[in-house]
Amino acid sequence: MACTERARPDPSPIRRGTVAAVRGSVVDVRFEDHLPEIASILRKGPGSDVVIEVMTQMDPCPVDRLPDPEGVEWRTIHRAPPPLAARSTKSEAFETGIKAIDVLVPLERGGKAGLFGGAGVGKKVLLIEMIHNMLGHRHGVSIS
After folding, report:
1. How far apart are alpha carbons 90 and 87 in whole angstroms?
2. Which of 29, 30, 57, 82 is least crowded, fewest Cβ atoms below 10 Å from its Cβ?
3. Do 40 and 6 touch, CB atoms closer than 8 A?
4. Parallel, antiparallel or unpaired: strands 50-53 and 93-94
């Protein structure tokens, strides 16, 4: 299915894209050469009666500016969850790196925990510290 784009302020040249996916009110459109500007209008359908506004762009280059990783299986976030039989049933402790939490209130890996407190008491600082500690152990990167 083809989709055309025309910028709002002026009648710029028409570019053609392809509708890749439709999920509710979200429409993924692929353009080969040039991405349309944010807030521009895409038109589709007989007589261009379907109007789509560009809200965001998916930039093709990776965040780290390195080449695309090889041997990676790309999956959509909208896929079905794995079956129960394929999930791990063993219980492991999640080491936060904060001794007071690890000893007094141990967390389960993959589980959920609530963090309650008033405004300005350090909830976010505690979460950032936990992320920092985990990244130090796993040599990972966090983008927030």
Report:
1. 9
2. 82
3. yes
4. unpaired
30, 34, 36, 42 alpha-carbon torsion, rounded to 10°: -50
C-beta of residue 131 within 8 angstroms of C-beta of residue 142: yes
Q: What is the pLDDT of residue 10?
A: 53
Q: Are the beta carbons of 61 and 36 closer than 8 angstroms?
A: no
Q: Report residues of the chain scoring pLDDT below 50.
A: 1, 7-8
What the block records as the tokens of 126 is 């505690």
Across 107-131, b (16+ Cβ under 10 Å) vs e yields eeeeeeeeeeeeeeeeeeeeeeebe
Burial class for 29, CB neighbours closer than 10 Å (0-12, 13-18, 19+): buried
Query: In the numeric block, which tokens belong to residue 11?
Result: 């009648």
Strand order in the sheet with 2-6: 26-30, 15-23, 2-6, 41-44, 50-53
pLDDT, position 121: 94
Give yes or no for a contact between 40 and 8, defined as CB atoms under 8 angstroms apart: yes
